[in-house]
Amino acid sequence: MNAQDLLKKYQLSVTDSRLSVLHIFMQSGGALSHSDIEGRLKGLHDRVTVYRTLQTFADKGIIHQIPTTDNAVLYALCKENCAGGHHHDNHVHFLCTECEITTCLDDVMVPTVKLPRGFRQNDVKMVVTGVCKLCK
Amino acid sequence: MNAQDLLKKYQLSVTDSRLSVLHIFMQSGGALSHSDIEGRLKGLHDRVTVYRTLQTFADKGIIHQIPTTDNAVLYALCKENCAGGHHHDNHVHFLCTECEITTCLDDVMVPTVKLPRGFRQNDVKMVVTGVCKLCK
DNA sequence: GTAACTGCAAAATATTTGCATCCTT
DNA sequence: AAGGATGCAAATATTTTGCAGTTAC
């Protein structure tokens, strides 16, 4: 799905800023910080607009905030919308100790961890155990 | 280990601020934000001192930053020092695809995830797959 | 034309730095 | 006594808010 259709799908007006920010996400294929984005826009748009754009996208579920172990605030496109297939299965799984059912928490992305020097990362799995919505 | 000995172990002078902050961590037994700590100090110490204290503790490995999925910056005592035994086994594990050895990354704490409404959390496991320091 | 979006200014918040004074060792 | 830690003031950085002008639909 291209940037324009994506915006329409979420009933957002198609504007320059939004298209630019979406293109930046699509091209990078990964997680970006506010200042990464600001940098790549090269002053084309106001800093405040970037904040508002990211907020809007996050509200609509186009992007997610991804926390990292060094506490930078990163954003990334959500899986569903990532037509290019570049995304991994990077949401958190939940195992309920009552019903023993494992649920995909699609809205909860796996945080990015910062590994010690020398480690190369391939894949991250995160499983939360507890009591699910239905069993509580 | 009590707060005073802990400071001595890390060759830090024993001061009011540091003792207070350590006590707050020990009593809470969990992760705290800068403002949590500031709040519990009730104006007894300067805001800047809290920043510096947290920084010093983090440098020495007394506390860790813990990212969360809602991007609050949280700190918690490191396991080793947590004499009370209140800590869980909350560091990240690393599975190397070359040597197939699983390593504890003691320095990398498992981020706190914010679950959707209705879920109760018990335990979190995080496993990173990749190539370890020795095999790379 | 109307509602929504943007850019600018400025407020609010969060974090860092410099320096003189005070406290720990 | 000496070095480090604190508190205050102020500089910087980050994020939010208000509003007038502009743009998408």
Provide a descriptive summary of the structure in words.
The structure is a homodimer of 136-residue chains. With 136 residues, the first copy, chain A, is of the alpha+beta class. Chain A is 31% helix and 28% strand. Chain A is built from four helices and six strands; from the N terminus they run ααβααβββββ. The first copy, chain A, has helices at residues 3-9, 16-28, 34-41, 47-60; strands spanning 32-33, 63-67, 73-77, 91-96, 102-109, 120-131. In chain A, the strands form two sheets. Chain A has a three-stranded antiparallel sheet. In chain A, β4 and β5 form a beta hairpin. The longest helix of chain A is centred in the middle third of the chain and has 14 residues, at 47-60. Chain A is globular, with a radius of gyration of 17 Å. Mean pLDDT of chain A is 85; it is low at 82-88. β6 (120-131) of chain A pairs antiparallel with β6 of chain B.
Oligomer: homodimer
Strands of chain A, total number:
6
Strand content of chain A is: 25-35%
Alpha-beta classification of chain A: alpha+beta
Order of helical and strand elements of chain A:
HHEHHEEEEE
Question: Which stretches of chain A are poorly predicted, pLDDT < 50 over at least 5 residues?
Answer: 82-88
State mean pLDDT of chain A (0 to 100 scale).
85
Largest interface: A-B, 38 and 38 residues
Major sheet: arrangement of strands of chain A: 1-3-2
Report the helical percentage of chain A: 25-40%
How many helices of chain A? The count is: 4
Principal-axis shape of chain A = globular
Biggest beta sheet attributes of chain A: 3 strands, antiparallel
Distance between the termini of chain A: 39 Å
Alpha-carbon Rg of chain A, integer: 17 Å
